[in-house]
Amino acid sequence: MSTETTDPTEEFRENQSWLFDTTAGVYLRKTLVGLVTAGAGLFVLFPLYWLVVTAFKTTAEIQQIPPTIVPQNWSLQGFSVVIESSIQAGGYQVFFENTLGVTITSAIDINVLQLVFNSLKVSVGAGLIAVAFGTVASYVLSRRDFRGKNVLMSLFLASLMFPGTAIMVPEWELINMLDLYNTHVALVLIYGAMTAPFVVWLMKGFFDDFPGSIIDAARMDQCSPYETFRYVVVPMARNSLIASFIFAFLLAWNELVFALTLLGNAKYTVPPGLLTFVQGFNTQWNVVAAASILVSVPVLLGLAYIQRYFVQGLTGGAIKG
Amino acid sequence: MTRLELEHVTKRFDGPSGDIVAVNDLSLEVDDGDFLVLLGPSGCGKTTTLRMIGGLEEPTEGDVTFDGVRVNDVKARNRDVAMVFQDFALYPHMTVGENLGFGLKREDNGLAENEIDERVAEVAEMLEIGDLLDKKPSSLSGGQKQRVALGRAIVREPRLFLFDEPLANLDAQLRKTMRTEIDELQSRMGITSAYVTHNQEEAMTIADEIAILNDGTLQQHDTPARIFNSPNNLFVAQFVGSPDMNIFDGTMTEEGERYRVEFAGRSFHVPRDLFEDVAEDVSDVTIGFRPQDLFREASTEGRQGHAGPVIDSEIRVIEPLGTDAIVHAEIDEGTLTSTLTRFHEIDEGDAATFTIAPEHIYVFERDTERLIKGRVDTETDEVGAVMSD
Amino acid sequence: MSYESNAHSPYERAIQRVPEGLRVYLAVLPVTALVGLFILYPIARAIYTSFFERSLLHPDQSTFIGMGNYANIWSSAQIHQVIVNTVLWVVVGSGIAIVIGFVLGWLLYEKLPYVSVASAIVLIPWVLPRVVGASIWQFMFSGSQGIINELLVQLGVVDDYVVMLGDPSLSLWPAIVGMIWRLAPLFALLTLTSFQGIDEHLYEAARMDGATPWEAFRYITLPLMRYNLAIGFLLMLIYNIRNFSMVWVMTKGGPGYSSTTLPVMIYRSAFVDFNIGFASALSVMLFVVLLVFSYYYIKVYDRVQGEF
């Protein structure tokens, strides 16, 4: 080297990047990353934290100004109001008074447990329909070629984009026409229709990757097509089938628009019921938060299972996890 | 057991631009207990043939028969054949034991649960996978998976074993052990087998008989020795043997009781009786000889023994393989490849003289690529006599 | 040795009686029928109803008025507000959600430990029942008890608590924030998955080729992720434009029409004003937009997947 530098490693120091190769740059970068992480984390997590602590505050503490970041005294008041109002709305208060000696007088009677039960009914029904219909179709769509296949797949993909708000009015007309207004069957069918395309895409992705030689091996092992499906394909597809079911279940559990427009108060599922609850109790946010947490439990359990399939399911298989 | 026959079997698939003929008018017979290897480059139709034997594909034309019974429309599951797949195709949701017993349970064989377990245990013992019975396939090594796949086929004692490149997914060392093992198992059980591979060395080692396919057409069906020494045509000759055969254009003229063969500016004589049905007017031929048959002469002068051609060359590359080396040498007309054991005496750039015994030279008609003179094994003085029973 | 068929099950024998060519259609029939009746038919039905004057209270009485409902939309006093709201909602909401989501996805991939646990936590906002998510934000934005007001006062941004949800000039923004909170995790997961799909060796090769981390990101990561990002972008647009619950829970579209987006407008027209014909015409507007998005979605999908 011609210059008077004494550092023998100088020639390796070309193409330097200030941000990555200088001490100041590295510190700046680390600080920025730290700040961004903290900011993004706070944005995502704080509302969840707030939901939880609110549920454990007393009504009195909720109404304090300014709000407390950590509850002064942890209380189950919110949860007990939810349970009590459920019992009262369900007409069980006499039973409780007689057997347990507990008197229940709730200001508002909304039966959260009944909402949960209704939602379970609708969501399980929709999930089963979607998985049963969707799986059979996806198996064929994956393994066979036939006229109209691409049109059908595009149609299913497009129909994923439409449901909900765009068709609430004609759906209301249709359900009235079918004489299904204010029935859970209506929701089971609609949610089934909304999620079956999800299942088709998710399961098709699975079957596309299914090794053909396994099917051949089963044929060699003297399986009829039905036995191949029953003893080889379905057990291997178990995880994907469960994931599909949970996807359908979650969508049905969370859906507001159709539940709101196609059911009367008495038949409400969780989302419209909770909405009424929010409006009834919006000075007692601890009660709302407690109810919110209770109805979110199934969702969080489901999330743990489907996380692996999440992206593939949401994008209709466009992106595989 | 089973004598397998294919009679004029043709298989066509719909392709984007018309039909694709995967197998073209193939006829084969495999005697009871024989081990047939279907050998050929990829896409030659060998796997399709195997799948037609197994019932996974139906022939477009022609018949597949087992012991003279036509089985074309018999479904795979009713044929009582077992197959070992290239990717093993083990059921991932079943344990090794369940994998082995699955076929037996499906079969209408009147076996009780514990009899099945017994047979599974027996086979597992034989293949030394007895301690793996409760494991899932995902926790096994490649070699272990291969044994389970073999076991799954063996346990059913089928009429036929089919192997679809069963060793392709294993590493080189394992491939050698497993191929010996498969060979032994098959001989012990005496079950007629068909085995697909594109590896000629594997085929030569394992086969009782080899069927070589190219573009869906049968090139030759013969013993390994005859395939090697008297290949039907240039394709077969080039496909078997390693390193690749040396090929040169040449001419041939009749001189009384012998033929005078010329190539690369050298000429030599071959007795007429080493040739088979030479057409009247053949003069353009293709000459081939194997690198193993080419050896070095100390000098052009004073050589003894045979009257083979002598070729002067310059050594270009020496690829040592341990005990011997592959030597590439240049002559005016192209490159010579030879395998030499005493390669330490020579160096790249040296001049070297090679020679070859006329018995070892293959001659093909240039137009038809048909063989007119095969390699005669010097020890026996008769084409392919060593191996032909 | 005989080779008789061993169709053990009655199902199988039943299936075998159906001609081969029809079996595939038999298999896709249930889904197609379900989707056809409950999703495709309503779309057609909305187009049809949009040409009639029809009230929710007397759905059997309707008068054909041609383009009348569309003309009413054009001349309605609120439509301009609704369109502006919807565009703001979609553009700002999607834009910020994408930026935050991308950063979150990158952090998950690069910086945070326990990826699967972390990404499950990040996903919670997305999977929570919409009403729950919306009511959390409603509470956080509420006038006197809201933590956000407290924060703003502490930071000195405002002097006193502001009733944001009740102020026509502000009421849309809390819902947008809530929607970003719900959608960003989704984009984060797409980003994470895309990062994970890129072969590590490419980065090593790039480093050997002298690329700085930034250059590796710019010339390797981004180009390889472009289709996935396009998919994510379109999903953001689609989820945003069809969202109803966030606005409805937080403000019911008010005060007045100040926070009403197109879906909320459809709901209000049909189930508050009982004007189904008008609501159907609005639905048709929404279809057109969704159709455009779906078209591009399928196009990008084709690029990613080749043939279906």
Automatic annotation (TrEMBL), chain A:
Annotated compartments: Cell membrane
Transmembrane segments: 32-52, 122-142, 151-169, 181-203, 240-263, 283-306
Family matches, as CDD domains: TM_PBP2
Keyword Translocase: no
Pfam families tied to this protein: BPD_transp_1
Keyword Methyltransferase part of the UniProt annotation: no
Membrane topology label: Multi-pass membrane protein
ABC transmembrane type-1 domain sequence ranges: 116-306
Cited PROSITE patterns: ABC_TM1 (PS50928)
GO cellular component terms listed in the entry, alphabetical order: plasma membrane
UniProt keyword list: Cell membrane, Membrane, Transmembrane, Transmembrane helix, Transport
Main location: membrane
Example of a GO biological process term: transmembrane transport
Domain of life: Archaea
Similarity comment: Belongs to the binding-protein-dependent transport system permease family.
Protein's name in the database: ABC transporter permease
Biological source species: Halarchaeum nitratireducens
Automatic annotation (TrEMBL), chain B:
Any GO MF annotation of the entry: ATP binding
Signal peptide: none
Domain ABC transporter: 4-240
GO biological process: carbohydrate transport
Record's keyword terms, sorted: ATP-binding, Nucleotide-binding, Transport
Pfam families in the record: ABC_tran, OB_MalK
InterPro entries: AAA+_ATPase, ABC_transporter-like_ATP-bd, ABC_transporter-like_CS, ABC_transpr_MalK-like, ABC_transpr_MalK/UgpC-like, Mo/tungstate-bd_C_term_dom, NA-bd_OB-fold, OB_MalK-like
Membrane association type: Peripheral membrane protein
Protein localization: Cell membrane
A cellular component term, taken from the record's GO annotations: ATP-binding cassette (ABC) transporter complex, substrate-binding subunit-containing
Predominant location category: membrane
Catalytic activity: D-xylose(out) + ATP + H2O = D-xylose(in) + ADP + phosphate + H(+); L-arabinose(out) + ATP + H2O = L-arabinose(in) + ADP + phosphate + H(+)
Enzyme Commission number(s): 7.5.2.13
Subunit structure: The complex is composed of two ATP-binding proteins (XacJ and XacK), two transmembrane proteins (XacH and XacI) and a solute-binding protein (XacG).
Function, in words: Part of the ABC transporter complex XacGHIJK involved in the uptake of xylose and arabinose. Responsible for energy coupling to the transport system.
Assigned protein family: Belongs to the ABC transporter superfamily. Carbohydrate uptake transporter-1 (CUT1) (TC 3.A.1.1) family.
Protein name: ABC-type D-xylose/L-arabinose transporter
From TrEMBL, chain C:
Family annotation (Gene3D superfamilies): MetI-like
GO BP term, example: transmembrane transport
Transmembrane segments: 24-44, 82-108, 114-132, 170-192, 227-250, 270-298
InterPro entries: MetI-like (IPR000515), MetI-like_sf (IPR035906)
Keywords, sorted A to Z: Cell membrane, Membrane, Transmembrane, Transmembrane helix, Transport
Keyword Magnesium tagged: no
Pfam families assigned: BPD_transp_1
Protein name, per record: Sugar ABC transporter permease
Organism: Halarchaeum nitratireducens
Lineage summary: Archaea, Methanobacteriati, Methanobacteriota, Stenosarchaea group, Halobacteria
